[in-house]
Protein 1
Amino acid sequence: MPRWPFGDIGPCEVVYNYGEAAAVNLSPFLGTVALRLTDSMVDVQEEAYGDSAVDSVFSGIACELDCPLTRQEYDELVLFVPGTSLQSECLTFSAFMGCGLYDDAVEVVIKPMCDGVPDINNLNWIQIFKAAPYRDFELTFDRSGQRVMMVKFKCFIDLTSGMGGRVFRMGIPTSEI
């Protein structure tokens, strides 16, 4: 029976800055970890057909990863959430602008989990070549909902490693581990 190499249902582990000494395991999560890829297209039109498309041309992609974090320690969050600092045991969020994201983008790997254990088969992993985190969350306080901090990642085309034009791949060849 066919199935995805990384399973049909289940949680995952997300490793930020994979393969480096400063790698960070982003778990635990509450909710859906989602990797989204959307093709961008520009419609080709002809006057006789008004706003109706007679063709479309691919014009790029948008790729993002959503990680609904829960129960992280402040010293973990400051390692990958931009615009944060840890001072006197307090996590401070600062405003910033005009900063590029690509230079801070790192490799992120998603590993499916079974029974709380990450899959050791690298052919079942998803490798994002360049991803940079950004903040987009709201902390809620009520009598029944658990708090979650959504950290999103903008995924970029890898311009530096010979993977030009590529954003992510499903499976990592054993020769590259």
Protein 2
Amino acid sequence: MDRRSFIGMLRGMLPLAAIAQQAALNRVKRLGVIVGSEPFLFAAFDASLRQLGWVPGENVIVELRTTRANTADSATYAAELARMNLDVILVGSLPPAIEMRKAKPDQAMVIATCPGLVSNGFAATMDRPGGHSTGIDELPPGVTAKRMKLLKTAVPRLSRVALVSTTPGRGGHERQLADAEQIAPELGISVKPYRAANLDELKTALGAIADDRMEALATFQGAVAILNRQVIIDFAAAHRLPAMYQATAFVESGGLMAWAPDLVEQYRDAARYVDQVLKGASPGDLPARYPSGYFLTINAGTAKALDLVLPPALLAQADRVI
């Protein structure tokens, strides 16, 4: 074939290549979702996804799986979704992310909330994850120290704080504990961790906190704590323990205070990540990030029940007082 014929052949092929590329972009995409039983979070994700042009049943098929508290649902659903030809999977927390990686290591995945994307091997670095996953890491440097400072401000007489840790995976627990231990001498407090991987262990840990006569408690990031938050809140109320929590939902359910990110906004961010992956981006090329902000929420009714007179400056600092 001479040069002119070869060039002519290439010109003839270009429209076909463009058509094939457009067809790939236009085909109905398949999205897997594994989230917990907090419907408002998935609703925020779904609304954002629709705003970005993805309409379930039209240009995207959504395989939604909702996990129940204190079950093996994460592993079950991960194995189920791994058998499907999905373009990307959204997981709401670290446990289903770990199970999904076991079931299908090369699955493109966005993690809406994760205590330690790098330490758990889902990202090489925050700026360039480099693998098959990206998302939002809920452990920016100093977040646990900030929680300890706020708790001490609320209860100046405080000297012994129990750290309730249900953080799964690798690195997240250690990072939060190191943060708390580093700030403790400055605040004139001692801290002690109590670990739990499930509800039974959580109840045992709370019993140990009572036996040790701890004066307050703080929760670390972890789905087990959030899913069983009423157990922790009721325990704190029964033993009259001031508490600092990892999520605003604790305070809305009767807990004292939380220094926490906006979970709704994190799920909106997760939708933006999913949008980019559905349009052809690799998760490993999408920088992971920390939450855009942390907010102080205080339950004034709970403070009153504990006979706590909160400093006016602390109340003024609060983004929301219930």
Protein 3
Amino acid sequence: MSKLRLVFVAALLLTAAAGCTTVTPTPDPLDTRPADFSIVYKWQEGSLPPPYHYEYTVTIDPNGQGQIVMVPDYAFNNPPTWKETFSVMPAALDILYQLLIDKGLFTQRWQAQDQPPVGGSYDSLHITAHGQQITIPSFVIPAQADAAEDISSAIQVVVPQNIWRQLDAQRQMYMTEHTK
């Protein structure tokens, strides 16, 4: 996502989170965020030696209740699991939903690459909307890569920055404590 677009999306989400709303024309019913709209976004660091690997999952339910769960290492090291909750204002969910429409989430057939790269970080997204389940797999084909990246970035922006900072600080402490 271009930095300008990311800043624009962040500003809109922050404005919506502050309770500010704008007057908009009556939307097309398909452009309106449905009552069943929910998100599960998973991200995992690539192959790194312990304790540098980490992963997280962001979920947002139809009411805007969000949760991020971070695991700071590989499962075989029995790491802790950190959970933080947050709320997404309805206006911010509407903005995110419109971005998903603009990026073709509901009109494209999302395709994974036949030969994905080995060892890098990866993510996946599962959206429920209008009774449908839509998945953006890891390593989509090049023609869909920019749209998938824009969508991933927008979802990451929905998680409040203070939560990201807190999780990053916990992860830094974990790495310091587990570096041999």
